[in-house]
Design brief:
180 residues, alpha/beta, 2 domains, five-stranded parallel sheet, globular
């Protein structure tokens, strides 16, 4: 988000704000002249945010009203993979952006997890178990564990033309902090 040039006076929409770490960071960036609207289906973790430039809303991005052409930045992380019709949420966020605004979506891809060392004696077993886990999660339909690669298509379908996407892969060996 820092590379987008988030700056003083911006109006930002944080969809699915969770515990509010991004909303707090954005509030620092936009300063007292800006505004961060932090939304969540259940904002119980956001009630501790007592900043004058943060507005907390109980909000369902799929159905609840949202200001049109208002925000300089709309952001969500790990939200779309939980929705049955994620394209509706993307369209609503696009509609909420002012001309020239930014939409930043972060979604994961658990199917990209694999053994670092293919020659390790446990690599094949690890990879197989990971594939099985992703398949079981997919079958629950609680969320799409390999949703990340679908984001670009959703942005294109929403009519956006200046699209950039990237994938980041963390490489960690078993026993390291990130792997645990």
């Amino acid at each position: 988000m820092a590379t987008l040039g988030t700056s003083r006076g911006w109006r930002c929409l944080e969809v699915g704000a969770g515990h509010g770490s991004i909303a707090r960071w954005l509030a620092e960036q936009v300063g007292p002249q800006g505004l961060v609207v932090a939304t969540d289906l259940n904002p119980r973790f956001l009630t501790e945010i007592q900043l004058p430039n943060v507005e907390v809303r109980r909000h369902d991005i799929r159905t609840d009203p949202l200001e049109s052409h208002t925000y300089d930045l709309a952001h969500c992380r790990g939200v779309l993979a939980h929705l049955r019709e994620p394209h509706l949420a993307v369209r609503r966020m696009v509609e909420a952006l002012r001309m020239g605004g930014w939409l930043l979506i972060e979604e994961g891809n658990l199917s990209s997890i694999g053994a670092v060392d293919a020659d390790h004696p446990l690599a094949e077993s690890f990879n197989r178990r990971n594939r099985e886990l992703v398949e079981r999660i997919t079958q629950t339909k609680l969320f799409a564990p390999s949703f990340g690669p679908q984001v670009r298509r959703l942005l294109e379908e929403a009519g956006l033309s200046e699209i950039n996407n990237e994938g980041i892969q963390v490489i960690a060996r078993g026993g390291e902090a990130h792997a645990r």
